[in-house]
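[step 3/7] inverse_fold.run input=structure_tokens len=342
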């Protein structure tokens, strides 16, 4: 009995030491988290808003893309744009570049003192995500990568002296396996970043990542500015509409840790949900169904959410849809809701 009693006492002391150690670790973690949060979390409730504009998507919606872009500039008075420079648009034939439409968009912004984030690379905003010319299909991966590096060099050299450009975004969510895309290796991305830094060392480089489906680390450690997406209601084929159960503090804590463990200088929202995400593409989706994931009420909730996140910039996703609703469907409610923030 004495031996059993002694063993029991040893066991109890061991459990107490383990419990104390666990409590100490948890306490240290919580203290560390709080310190990081208050020191490194972004603190700017005055959010500046912009819009991502896609010429091909405006055309898909049946719109005059120049009219749509001009309306965003002159009616809503948008003064920040994220403009994809689609490889499929500028080099339809190998070695033959056509920059007229991109020139027009950037110069219209410049004439109104609007700022432009130019997105370069093969993976760009809007489905199918990767916008690769058909003539590339016959090439090996190495040949394709060499071609995109050459095209990026041409794009940067063309626009680096245009003062409307305020930043370069290299690829779009390169670490997120989404869309009809070849894998963008870290090695290729690093080469692309090196090209941009060498040709234009004066402007910051944005690398974007999913707000909900990634850690941000791989993107942030390469970026001057980390660009995150932010969606509130999305469609899942198995679950239906998913309302993300994530608070604004989630993004702030995430930002605090990323800014502590990397050298990223700033975090912004490059894609803030401002249009529906439903079971089918927009033109095949009835308006009633579209409004289940986006309407003026949800739009205002998203804006309020972003103000609580407190990142300084947010580029809205959906300007083409707002204009389509207004001019094709006779519903200007989303257009007017957007007017409130610009």
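[step 3/7] decode complete -> sequence:
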């Amino acid at each position: 009995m004495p031996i059993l009693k002694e063993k029991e006492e040893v066991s109890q002391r061991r459990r107490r030491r383990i419990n104390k150690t666990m409590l100490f670790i948890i306490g240290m973690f919580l203290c560390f988290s709080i310190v990081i949060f208050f020191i490194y979390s972004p603190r700017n409730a005055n959010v500046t808003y912009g819009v991502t504009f896609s010429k091909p998507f405006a055309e898909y919606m049946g719109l005059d893309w120049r009219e749509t872009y001009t309306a965003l500039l002159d009616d809503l008075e948008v003064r920040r744009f994220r403009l994809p420079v689609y490889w499929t648009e500028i080099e339809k034939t190998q070695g033959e570049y056509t920059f007229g439409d991109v020139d027009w968009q950037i110069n219209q912004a410049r004439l109104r003192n609007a700022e432009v984030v130019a997105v370069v690379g093969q993976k760009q905003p809007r489905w199918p995500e990767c916008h690769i010319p058909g003539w590339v299909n016959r090439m090996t991966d190495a040949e394709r990568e060499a071609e995109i590096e050459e095209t990026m060099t041409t794009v940067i050299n063309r626009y680096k002296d245009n003062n409307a450009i305020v930043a370069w975004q290299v690829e779009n969510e390169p670490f997120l396996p989404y869309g009809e895309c070849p894998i963008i290796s870290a090695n290729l991305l690093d080469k692309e970043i090196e090209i941009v830094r060498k040709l234009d060392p004066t402007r910051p480089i944005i690398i974007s990542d999913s707000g909900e489906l990634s850690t941000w680390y791989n993107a942030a450690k390469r970026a001057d500015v980390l660009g995150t997406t932010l969606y509130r209601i999305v469609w899942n084929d198995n679950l239906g509409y998913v309302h993300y159960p994530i608070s604004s503090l989630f993004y702030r804590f995430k930002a605090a840790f990323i800014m502590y463990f990397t050298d990223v200088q700033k975090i912004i929202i490059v894609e803030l949900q401002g249009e529906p995400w439903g079971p089918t593409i927009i033109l095949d989706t009835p308006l009633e169904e579209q409004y289940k994931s986006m309407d003026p009420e949800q739009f205002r909730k998203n804006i309020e959410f972003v103000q609580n996140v407190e990142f300084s910039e947010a580029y809205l996703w959906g300007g083409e849809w707002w204009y389509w609703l207004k001019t094709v469907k006779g519903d200007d409610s989303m257009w007017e809701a957007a007017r409130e923030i610009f």
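[step 4/7] annotate
Residues 1-40 form one domain.
DSSP finds 13 helices and ten strands in the chain.
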